[in-house]
């Protein structure tokens, strides 16, 4: 075959031509490779070489039957496209509305605020728990100053909470858990103790200063330990009994010189301690797979049914005769109804926040938080209402709170050791 001569006085031998077929002035294949070195000013020859199989020339220019491709540039284009696409993906969001975080080339949902700052969220829960508790105690006592009917007010507390739970169930937050006769039988004793303790606490709040009621209620750990020892048969360590001694001594000192002391307030607070102790005992027996929010809602409904009869029997005639009339005459119907509504809301919300807070922390933190909550309530009630206390009452209250703190710390450490031992045995 004759050689093909380049017009730029270069020739290509026939032996260098491969896979080139001319048919009716058409080239059916293949690839024209441009040697970049031959494109220098001093070398102007063009070489037609066969396209290597499974190997893409880094600087080749291909003329396939499809669209024109520049293999050398395509890698650069792909690299740039990947970078640009990653930037866009990093700013995208998933179907739930959470931002997507790009890590090692993989899209992952970014952490929520609570996951990134758990301590801050837990601190906020503690703050709201204390805040709502303090507001409830202050507003509750102010209502008793012009409407001294604790049985009826207790019904209002539970009624507002029950309505709140029913509304939440209606919208599915949370979804209502079904209840049967067995669960009802387990929750009824818990609800009865809850109703009794709640009513007696309110009777004490109405009769004496809020700070004194909470000082008496500091004895609740003593009743819990006694019930565990003598009712449930659990062996209570000597260290726990010794830590309760300051509690008993402090409450006794505070009671002897409390200026607002009366037997109604004192006995009611003691009955409240006993009722809440048995509530804890029955609660352990009523442990089910139901979540705590639904359990508390059912307990509130049953407790409301227990609270209505004594309110009607004990305070009903007085309320109908002059109780409502006097309260409306003093503060007006709007403020009266508003106060009743808000004390019910604050009562329910602080209990719900307490449950949510205690689920986020360890038992030791729970114990410290519970003691600090009582200190906050006593301190704020003294400041807001200007209650005068004697020096001995102040010292006794401080000793009682310190004893509760020591008891709570010891109990929390014991529970933590039991949990670790159970976990080790399970693994």
Describe this structure in words.
- With 427 residues, this protein is mainly alpha-helical.
- The protein is 67% helix and 5% strand.
- It contains 13 helices and 8 strands.
- The protein has helices at residues 71-90, 113-116, 118-146, 150-171, 181-207, 210-217, 220-230, 238-256, 263-285, 292-331, 333-358, 363-385, 391-426, and strands at 4-6, 10-12, 22-23, 26-27, 61-62, 69-70, 100-103, 106-109.
- Helix 3 runs antiparallel to helix 11 (333-358), helix 5 runs parallel beside helix 10 (292-331) and helix 12 (363-385) runs antiparallel to helix 13 (391-426).
- The longest helix has 40 residues, at 292-331.
- The protein is globular, with a radius of gyration of 40 Å.
- Mean pLDDT is 77; it is low at 1-46 and 54-99.
- This is Triose phosphate/phosphate translocator, chloroplastic-like.
**Given the C-alpha coordinates, what overall shape results?**
globular
In DSSP terms, counting alpha (H) and pi (I) runs of 4 or more, how many helices? 13
Helix content: 55-70%
Distance between the termini: 85 Å
| Rg result | 40 Å
- The helix-strand sequence is EEEEEEHEEHHHHHHHHHHHH
> What are the low-pLDDT stretches, counting only 5+ consecutive residues below 50?
1-46, 54-99
Class by helix and strand content? mainly alpha
Strand content: 5-15%
Number of DSSP strands? 8
Largest sheet: 2 strands, antiparallel
Strand order of the largest sheet: 1-2
Mean pLDDT rating: 77
Task: For the structure shown, list the relevant keywords.
disordered N terminus; 427 residues; two-stranded antiparallel sheet; 13 helices; two-stranded antiparallel ribbon; mainly alpha
């Amino acid at each position: 075959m004759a050689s093909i001569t380049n017009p730029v006085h270069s020739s290509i031998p026939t032996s260098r031509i491969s896979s080139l077929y001319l048919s009716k002035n058409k080239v059916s294949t293949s690839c024209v490779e441009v040697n970049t070195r031959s494109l220098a000013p001093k070398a102007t020859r063009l070489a037609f070489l066969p396209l290597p199989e499974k190997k893409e020339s880094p600087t080749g220019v291909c003329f396939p039957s499809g669209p024109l491709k520049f293999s050398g540039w395509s890698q650069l284009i792909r690299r740039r496209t990947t970078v640009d696409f990653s930037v866009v993906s990093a700013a995208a969001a998933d179907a739930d509305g959470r931002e997507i975080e790009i890590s090692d080339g993989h899209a992952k949902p970014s952490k929520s605020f609570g996951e990134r700052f758990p301590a801050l969220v837990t601190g906020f829960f503690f703050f709201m728990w204390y805040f709502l508790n303090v507001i409830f105690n202050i507003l509750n006592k102010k209502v008793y100053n012009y409407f001294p009917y604790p049985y009826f007010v207790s019904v209002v507390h539970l009624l507002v909470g029950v309505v709140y739970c029913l509304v939440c169930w209606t919208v599915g937050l949370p979804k209502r858990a079904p209840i049967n006769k067995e669960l009802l039988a387990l929750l009824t004793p818990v609800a009865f103790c809850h109703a009794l303790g709640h009513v007696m606490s309110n009777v004490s709040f109405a009769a004496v200063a809020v700070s004194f009621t909470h000082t008496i209620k500091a004895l609740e750990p003593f009743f819990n330990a006694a019930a565990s020892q003598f009712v449930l048969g659990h062996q209570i360590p000597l260290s726990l009994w010794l830590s309760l001694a300051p509690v008993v001594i402090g409450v006794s000192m505070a009671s002897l010189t409390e200026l607002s002391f009366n037997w109604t307030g004192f006995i009611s607070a003691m009955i409240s301690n006993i009722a809440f102790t048995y509530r804890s005992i029955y609660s352990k027996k009523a442990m089910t797979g139901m979540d705590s929010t639904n359990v508390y809602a059912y307990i509130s409904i049953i407790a409301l049914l227990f609270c209505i009869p004594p309110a009607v029997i004990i305070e009903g005639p007085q309320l109908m005769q002059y109780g409502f009339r006097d309260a409306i005459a003093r503060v007006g119907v709007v403020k009266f109804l508003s106060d009743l509504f808000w004390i019910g809301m604050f009562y329910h919300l602080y209990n719900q926040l307490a449950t949510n807070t205690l689920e986020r922390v360890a038992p030791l933190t729970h114990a410290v938080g519970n003691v600090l909550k009582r200190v906050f309530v006593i301190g704020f009630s003294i400041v807001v209402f200007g209650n005068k206390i004697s020096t001995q009452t102040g010292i006794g209250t401080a000793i009682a709170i310190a004893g509760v703190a020591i008891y709570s710390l010891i109990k929390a450490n014991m529970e933590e050791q039991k949990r670790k031992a159970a976990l080790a045995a399970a693994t």
